[in-house]
């Protein structure tokens, strides 16, 4: 039992830190690239197509080609999606265009995308080769499943609901996701992700900590709080609870 507990707590801390830093760095250096990095990545796109595809999916399509009229509406009328699909099929290889559609235009990611985004989770299983006892191995696996995966769960399943009005998201989401969305953590990430879309050089994390330590955190301005309420993204009670306070050390 002691072996299990020591492995669970030790690896838990290590895996949490690794996941939050990986998420923040991946978002900054693979997804939302600066123009200089983007030019370099464009030259490498044939060497490593999945990296380039992930950037287009997130930075170009999710940030700029969808949610154009409103943060809470992926498309503002039915023809808009058909038009975007047509543009993507003309501009990109068929395989890429299909990936963009299957990732819900960057609001989620595909199972192949999970291979790339989830690299730390897969690598953590290598620790099993170095551990001496079965309970220590079990502690390592449990810590990996619990502490390395929140950013994956958030970016694949929770993110689409974070772009919906709060009341509609709570009606539409399955029960397990509703628990996350309605929790203080779900509301905080909904707020910080809104700031990320306003200012894509900040608030990369859906698994909090690394942005704060890397000085990539920005609290919402008063007018952003007003906009979130006007959009129905959050309710006035959420603002009262968070504005001007700290949540998990993060200033809001
Ligand atoms: Zn982004
Ligand atoms: Zn988003």
Characterise the protein shown here.
With 252 residues, the chain is mainly α. It folds into two domains: 1-148, no CATH class; 161-252, no CATH class. It is 67% helix and 2% strand. It has a two-stranded antiparallel ribbon with strand order 1-2. A hairpin with a 2-residue loop joins strand 1 and strand 2. The protein is globular and about 60 Å long. Bound molecules: zinc ion (2 copies).
User: Count the strands?
Assistant: 2
Q: What share of residues is helical?
A: 55-70%
Strand order in the largest sheet: 1-2
Mean pLDDT: 95
Class by helix and strand content? mainly alpha
Determine Rg (CA atoms, Å).
Answer: 19 Å
Q: Give the ordered list of helices and strands.
A: HHHHHHHHHHHHHHHEE
The figure for the number of domains is 2
| Percent strand | under 5%
How would a textbook summarize the main sheet? Answer: 2 strands, antiparallel
How far apart lie the N and C ends?
Answer: 40 Å
Total helical segments: 15
Overall 3D form: globular
**Cofactors and ligands:** zinc ion
Stretches with pLDDT under 50, minimum 5 residues: none
